[in-house]
Design goal:
Length: 45
């Protein structure tokens, strides 16, 4: 929930910034981020 409210989110891969943007943008356009979001949502239900 906190990520959805953030102005900017950084997605790290291998210790480097792989993508940056809003939660909605990353969830829609960055496969690894979107997969992590969906996995977290499944775990919470």
């Amino acid at each position: 929930a906190a990520l959805a409210e953030a102005d900017e989110v950084l997605w790290l891969t291998g210790g480097r910034v792989a993508a940056r943007g809003t939660h909605a943008h990353l969830a829609a356009h960055v496969p690894g981020y979107g997969e992590a979001v969906r996995a977290e949502q499944r775990d919470q239900t």
